[in-house]
Q: What sequence folds into this?
């Protein structure tokens, strides 16, 4: 009972202080939104704007004013809209969504942009990447490797536009990699590279040589031994325990198929990949299971989807969940700073728990503490 009274007492004390802080704000907390409201990505933009409005409704504060502006998925239009937001007294902006639309934003002073991109390299000084970046994902994979006592891991990175992001994530997370390989996503070249990485031809030749050796031996049980060997595809061990594949969608499936072709089984070696946003098609890929990946909290994501559907009678995009959390993050950090300044909000070390999970903020960087999942037997299971 004493503990209950103490909690009530703390609440009674805290609430007037909070309202005192809010009263210090001379005007509303203006949050700009830069999203595509026209053009090919307008549906994504509308989903994000609706999510932000839902967050404002849930926070239920008359101190927040949301001002959306169109980017039309164009860098030039993004710059124009950002300048309009600045003239309206906005100091913090959610968006733009796409990395390509950031290129002119360093021309604008006194604005901080929380872009939904997961890219972190070569950002303008006033842009913070709020997406689920490679460092966040590799920190989670690193935790799994440690808990599972996996010591020899190879890393497969596609030669694409995010190749250097992955390498930066490896460096930032300090994850221990046995060997790192870059691969060409063109199917024929990919298969040849996977054959080389896994020593497939040598292992296949080992099998043929062993069959020949037993054939020519005086072993009384050679027929049974040869029969068993013919049920195999290769002979000889692999020098790794796990493979991390930094790929997605059909390209990911091409890599795993090539691994299966070279007699690398997920039942003997760990197949780990990057955030797949709970891609349902992976559930049906029995041959490549179990496969593991980091992601946001699925239970929270499902709850958010139900909330969004009730409000707007449509399914949200996964990026809209990120924008929902960013409103709460901005409000939380602003309230801690008496709503007086936004320029230093993301420089001080802070943590914030949203629907996606926990955000860690420091030195104008945002990382996410992710969960880790396993797909096996057509089911998704949370490991941690």
A:
């Amino acid at each position: 009972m004493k503990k209950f009274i103490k909690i009530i007492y703390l609440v009674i004390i805290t609430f007037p202080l909070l309202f005192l802080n809010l009263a210090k704000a001379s005007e509303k907390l203006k949050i700009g939104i830069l999203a595509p409201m026209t053009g090919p990505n307008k549906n994504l933009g509308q989903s994000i704007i609706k999510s932000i409005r839902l967050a404002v409704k849930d926070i239920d504060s008359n101190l927040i004013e949301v001002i959306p502006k169109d980017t039309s998925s164009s860098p030039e239009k993004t710059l124009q809209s950002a300048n309009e937001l600045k003239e309206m007294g906005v100091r913090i902006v959610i968006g733009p969504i796409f990395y390509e639309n950031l290129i002119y934003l360093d021309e604008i002073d006194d604005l901080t942009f929380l872009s939904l991109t997961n890219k972190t390299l070569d950002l303008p000084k006033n842009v913070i990447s709020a997406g689920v970046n490679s460092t966040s994902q590799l920190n989670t994979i690193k935790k799994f490797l440690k808990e599972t006592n996996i010591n020899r891991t190879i890393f497969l990175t596609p030669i694409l536009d995010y190749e250097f992001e992955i390498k930066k994530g490896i460096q930032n997370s300090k994850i221990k990699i046995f060997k790192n390989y870059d691969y060409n996503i063109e199917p024929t070249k990919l298969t040849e590279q996977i054959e080389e990485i896994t020593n497939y031809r040598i292992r296949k030749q080992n099998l043929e040589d062993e069959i020949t050796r037993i054939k020519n031996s005086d072993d009384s049980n050679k027929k049974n031994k040869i029969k068993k060997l013919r049920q195999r595809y290769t002979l000889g061990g692999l020098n790794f325990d796990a493979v991390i594949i930094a790929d997605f969608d059909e390209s990911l499936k091409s890599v795993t198929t090539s691994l299966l072709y070279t007699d690398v089984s997920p039942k003997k070696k760990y197949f780990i990949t990057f955030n797949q946003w709970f891609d349902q098609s992976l559930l049906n890929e029995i041959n490549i299971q179990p496969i593991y990946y980091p992601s946001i909290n699925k239970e929270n994501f499902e709850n958010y989807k139900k909330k969004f559907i009730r409000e707007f009678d449509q399914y949200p995009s996964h990026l809209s969940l990120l924008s929902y959390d960013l409103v709460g993050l901005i409000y939380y950090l602003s309230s801690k700073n008496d709503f007086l300044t936004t320029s230093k909000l993301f420089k001080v070390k802070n943590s914030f728990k949203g629907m996606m999970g926990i955000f860690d903020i420091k030195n104008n960087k945002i990382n996410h503490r992710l969960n880790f999942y396993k797909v096996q037997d057509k089911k998704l299971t949370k490991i941690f």
User: Anything to note?
Assistant: The mean pLDDT is 91. The domain at 26-132+298-346 is CATH 3.40.50.2300 (Rossmann fold). Residues 147 and 241 are 14 Å apart (CA to CA).
